[in-house]
Design goal:
The structure holds 2 protein chains of 2 kinds. Chain A has 5 helices and 11 strands; from the N terminus they run E-E-E-H-E-H-E-H-E-E-E-E-H-E-E-H. By secondary structure, chain A is an alpha+beta fold. The longest helix of chain A has 13 residues, at 88-100. Chain A is elongated. Chain B is α/β, with parallel strands linked by helices. In chain B, 33% of the residues lie in helices and 14% in strands. In chain B, strand 14 (337-341), helix 10 (351-361) and strand 15 (368-370) form a beta-alpha-beta unit. The chains are: A alpha+beta, B alpha/beta. Chains A and B meet through strand 3, helix 1 and strand 4 of A and strand 1 of B.
């Protein structure tokens, strides 16, 4: 790949990641920008990158950016959080308390030390999924599923911050580690839907080199 | 699409949406049990595998299966050349598979124990115990406790004697395997010397034995390996001791097992151009570069250097093979850095043409070339100049090793003080602002004065550098390593200095460097404490009785002894004090005691090719400060290796030159990256 490099004593390849998912979190929607030295067929680029990356890290599409940075097109993320051994009803109560609050102060250790910030304001929607599992038989294990749409803000509000918020407002303590998946990222419509940030460039005639 | 200027921003978006090809999970994979643990540990990416260059083969289609381990953390283990080469050589065989495993950090170890997850390979996350062979490469003895963790986590009995046909055969390799006696109770076999052909021979023995229906079980397999005379199987040898604790003799306890086991030597490195498909790590590692070994072996004859002694004779890779390996290695991996490695790279017979040829080929690209520079002469600076054509200066390190002229004669490092100062000043006048000087402390016959001369040398370097450049903006770093006497070297008989003495000398040296404040400010000082060296000395010259100390340390929590934040001197001293008196010996007996000529050394039955009489003579020469030349340029001095191993020096020049590269157009798809 003819990657462009920064100038200077120690040139770095021009690659930037837009709001990367935190470590330990699964994702179905990560985006990055690559600066190139010369034009390249996006389909060929996608195939070459995909071949070099690990199984499970799949590069699904590449488009030529016609204007505007990726960062400006990522306004929000949709997340799904599976909470094994948590009763959906319990989660629903916690979610109701969280939604009702104006602000929910949480704290997180960052590289700069302990930070306290509001985890509520950035949350656009927070719902208990209908696919949550309520135990029916004696042996069945419950699994509550939380669905979130969170606005991209600074400092970023991550799924674990929302879980901290649920602990703060309702004392919700998941007994086992939650499974977090990012489902989508992009611009936010007034209806609260997330639009693929590459859509704007896909309308052009340059996809796949015609 | 509008192409931007070179280096300008021509952005492209890459997007990832729901995965249609989930990661394939092998039938015996522990991944489903491991994955939930990963969010709870530091740097989980190191346990995930799937690097470019990694290979996952069908388990059932393979006849012989190897798990290969470098017994340190992934960040240190992944770049290891030895493991990468064997991994590739083995996986090229159609009926053989090789996967890698590294030491897990204590946080994951604890969770694996709590959740019953065994030691696993990073490639297909298969349990190490499922493999036929478990090969462990030891660059240093400080990895021994990590070996025990891996064996135990794998669910394999700690002691070789307790293993059954259900357990893999554990094979040790690497430089430390030239004295595997301290781990003799824990490994089933050890291979001395070059691994490329050794692993193929072992593989064919295992293949044949399995094809016959595994006759005689594990014992028969080990016997077949031992009969090659190049695989050491400790259980087939008994060690008898004298009343004073010294070894009386080491003898085979089985018929048709050889009295001595010989090292392997791979000749014609051009026929073994590995690694071809270097592993590209996903996590940060200590080296991220394409490393090519430009020659193996060294006959400079530095008396402390085990690597130089046990890898003889010198075998060069030709300039054209090196050029081709660099081209293909970079193309496959996308690395931007190339390291031209060997024990003394400036000594390659065609190093000048090699450096200028590569510099020419990669001029104007982002590829940087580096040479581990330790030779103290202006030629090294010429080479470094060539390699920095792309604008990136690599660091310059010179290794006089000893502070005084006298001690340099003892260690056979033929460099004068004037040479050093002239060389470093040349570096300063050619634009280097900083150089690193490497020395050792604790060398045989060393006095405080020998070490204090390092300060004089550093002062003079700065003084001369300032005079020559007219600038105060020059620096040097004095870096001190602790001397550890190693088996198969002329210093194998030497006594070690006590850590207090070493630490005292280093304190005096620091004071002496800073005695002149103006000069002292321009000199950095880095050193290692004496304590870890003493323990390394125990392990490197230990015998089978030291195995009990390793085990005790490990049981008391010893892990990652090569890491200062994990190493505990106290733990080793205490374990030695608990265990060794039972054998009538102690820690001092192994470390600070000088051996005499006739003492049977624990590794005498392991043949590195070096003639023991020659080693003893070289030790006597060291004590009388008599230097020994290099047999590449002066007549053979009868170290014994070539006749004993039926080998010879293989050096150029070939007279070939590197041709300009034809630019490759279009995107390249890595081939055979994942199966």
């Amino acid at each position: 790949m003819p990657v462009a490099f920064s100038q200077g004593f120690t040139p770095h390849p021009k690659i930037s990641y837009a709001s990367a998912a935190p470590t330990g979190v699964a994702s179905e929607a990560e985006y990055l920008e690559i600066g190139l030295r010369e034009p390249v067929d996006p389909a060929a680029l996608r195939a070459a990158l995909d071949a070099a990356l690990s199984p499970g890290l799949d590069v699904l599409d590449a488009v030529v950016a016609t204007g505007g940075g990726l960062a400006e097109r990522i306004e929000a993320s949709r997340w799904r959080i599976e909470l094994p051994q948590v009763e959906p009803e319990l989660l629903a109560k916690a979610v109701a308390a969280f939604s009702a609050a104006e602000q929910v102060q949480v704290e997180r250790m960052t590289k700069q030390g302990r930070r306290v910030f509001d985890a509520r304001g950035a949350v656009i929607t927070i719902d208990v999924s209908a696919s949550s599992v309520t135990p029916s038989g004696a042996s069945a294990v419950p699994c509550a599923i939380l669905e979130l749409v969170v606005r991209q803000v600074t400092p970023s509000v991550r799924p674990d911050d929302v879980l901290s918020g649920l602990r703060v407002v309702a004392g919700l303590e998941p007994p086992v580690a939650p499974k977090v998946i990012r489902l989508a990222q992009g611009t936010l419509t007034t209806q609260g839907a997330i639009v693929d940030p590459l859509d704007a460039d896909r309308d052009g005639a340059t996809i796949g080199g015609h | 699409m509008a192409p931007g200027p070179v280096g300008g921003r021509v952005p492209l978006g890459i997007m990832s949406v729901p995965s249609t090809t989930p990661r394939p999970v092998a039938a015996n994979s522990v991944w489903p049990r491991l994955e939930p643990l990963l969010p709870q540990v530091t740097k989980p990416i190191q346990y995930v595998g799937g690097e470019l260059g990694a290979v996952v083969k069908d388990w059932d289609a393979a006849t012989v299966r190897w798990a290969l381990m470098y017994p340190d953390a992934y960040e240190v283990g992944l770049p290891n050349q030895g493991v990468q080469i064997l991994y590739e050589v083995l996986n090229e065989l159609p009926d053989t598979l090789a996967e890698r495993t590294y030491a897990v950090w204590p946080d994951l170890e604890k969770l694996m124990r709590a959740h019953g997850v065994p030691q696993f390979t990073v490639d297909a996350h298969r349990p190490v115990r499922d493999f036929d062979l478990f090969g462990v490469s030891f660059a240093t003895e400080l990895g021994y406790t990590n070996l025990l963790t891996a064996i135990d986590l794998a669910g394999i009995p700690l002691l070789a004697a307790d293993r059954t046909d259900a357990d893999p055969v554990i094979v040790a390799g690497g430089h430390a395997a030239f004295n595997p006696e301290p781990i003799a109770d824990f490994v089933d076999a050890a291979v001395l010397g070059d691994g490329e052909e050794a692993v193929l021979e072992i593989t064919s023995i295992v293949r044949q034995w399995k094809a016959e229906g595994c006759p005689g079980g594990r014992d028969e397999l080990l016997l077949r390996l031992a009969r090659t005379e190049s695989v050491y199987v400790p259980r087939f040898y008994d060690v008898d001791y004298l009343p004073d604790g010294r070894i009386q003799r080491v003898v085979p306890n089985r018929a048709d097992v050889p009295f001595r086991v010989h090292k392997r030597t791979t000749m014609d490195l051009d026929a073994w151009p590995y690694p071809k498909k270097p592993l590209v790590p996903l996590a940060e590692t200590v080296h991220e570069r394409y490393a090519v070994e430009i020659f193996r072996g060294c006959t400079r004859g530095c008396r402390f250097c085990q690597a130089g002694m046990i890898t003889r004779p010198v075998r060069e890779r030709s300039i054209t093979t090196v050029g081709q390996m660099v081209q293909q290695g970079l193309e496959f991996s996308g690395f931007h850095e190339v390291g031209l490695l060997s024990l003394s790279s400036a000594d390659h017979s065609e190093i000048g043409d090699m450096c200028s040829g590569l510099a020419e080929q990669y001029q104007g690209t982002n590829v940087s070339l580096s040479l581990p520079s330790t030779r103290v002469d202006a030629f090294n600076i010429d080479l470094a100049q060539e390699l920095s054509r792309n604008g990136r200066r690599t660091g310059l390190t010179f290794a006089p090793e000893g502070g005084s002229e006298r001690i340099r004669k003892v260690i056979n490092k033929m460099v004068s003080k004037d040479d050093l100062i002239r060389t470093v000043v040349t570096a300063y006048t050619n634009g280097w602002r900083q150089v690193k000087l490497y020395f050792m402390c604790g060398l045989p016959t060393e006095t405080d004065e020998d070490v204090l001369e390092i300060a004089d040398m550093a002062h003079e370097v700065i003084r001369a550098g300032r005079a020559a450049t007219g600038s105060k903006d020059i620096r040097c770093t004095v870096s001190i390593g602790g001397f550890v006497p190693k088996p198969h070297t002329p210093f194998q008989w030497a006594s070690m200095e006590r850590p207090e003495v070493i630490d005292g000398r280093l304190r005096l040296l620091k004071q002496a460097i800073n005695a002149d404040r103006s000069l002292g400010r321009a000199i950095g000082f880095r050193y290692h404490d004496g304590e870890p060296s003493l323990i390394e000395g125990l392990l490197s010259r230990g015998d089978r009785r030291v195995g009990a100390v390793i085990r005790r340390v490990w049981e008391n929590g010893g892990r990652f002894d090569g890491w200062s934040e994990h190493f505990s001197y106290q733990r080793w001293v205490q374990a030695a004090a608990e265990v060794l008196p039972g054998f009538g010996v102690d820690l001092d007996w192994y470390t600070t005691r000088e051996r005499d000529e006739l003492e049977v050394l624990p590794w005498d039955h392991l043949d590195s090719g070096l003639d023991k009489d020659w080693l003893w003579q070289d030790w006597q020469d060291a004590l009388s400060e008599y230097e020994q030349d290099d047999c590449r340029w002066t007549p053979c001095f009868d170290c014994g290796v070539c006749p004993a191993m039926d080998t010879e020096i293989q050096i150029g020049p070939t007279g070939q030159k590197l041709l300009p590269l034809t630019p490759v157009n279009g995107l390249k798809l890595p081939t055979g990256a994942q199966q």
